[in-house]
């Protein structure tokens, strides 16, 4: 997992952007492009917005299932990544806010703070020693929950539907599995790391590798990713408009505009497993709604969502 020179491949994304660079873990939203002069935002009426939405719908395909060619799981992995990068707890829907004044509670470091929370000291309820807590319900693993069935996890948003909830569960399992490996292979630790710190670092590296080498090429396209990362030689990552070395912000053009494309990827229903091959995303007690204990029979077979070997 070496990262030679200045090229970022994987395994060091959270180390390139240090805690000090994001003001002890807190940074702001901002703009990708500086607005100069008397530029006013485009304000549209509800009817104009509805007319635009109608233009985005192809009548010939309404109701057709179709398939984008991107496996279904990447929709929810994208949601998981979003929850790892952005969280605005202050803005109110319908009100005007200056992005430079809005604190992003999450860090831009791909450090899985949506999984690890504030750490063992800051979020003790999600831990069992060095392990991340996992509950069992109706014979299946589930997120740890309180008496009101609310998930006890680093980011409550990762329980809002069955798929992202079980992705969160998968990362809890991943950390625990990596911890077992570290405890049996202490050479995986580096410096003065504890078993927990080594397991967290390696889990983050695996996640970052998946983002760079699997998620981004599928979503943005291989040519775009290669153009940005310049995989050959020792050139730094190419940045045309945004330089995180000068100012750490989460651009609103990305967080509340460009990255919202994932909403259009949600399908009407999903095959969760062999016994439940057509579960509606919305629509009744047996749908994929979250914020509740995992319903019986809703354990996801990830082979229906990702290209899984074995």
- Number of helices, where a helix is a run of at least 4 consecutive DSSP H or I residues: 9
Unreliable stretches: 1-11
Beta-strand fraction estimate: 5-15%
The chain-level structural class is: mainly alpha
| Spatial separation of the terminal alpha carbons | 24 Å
Tell me, what is the CATH class? Mainly Alpha
Q: Can you identify the CATH superfamily?
A: Haem peroxidase domain superfamily, animal type
Estimate nothing, just give the exact number of structural domains.
1
Order of helices and strands: HEHHEHHEEEEHHHEHEE
Q: Write down the overall mean pLDDT.
A: 84
Roughly how many Å is the radius of gyration?
21 Å
Percentage of residues assigned to helices: 25-40%
The strands making up the biggest β-sheet line up spatially as 2-1-7
Main location: secreted
Organism: Phycicoccus flavus
Keywords: Glycoprotein, Oxidoreductase, Peroxidase, Secreted
Subcellular location: Secreted
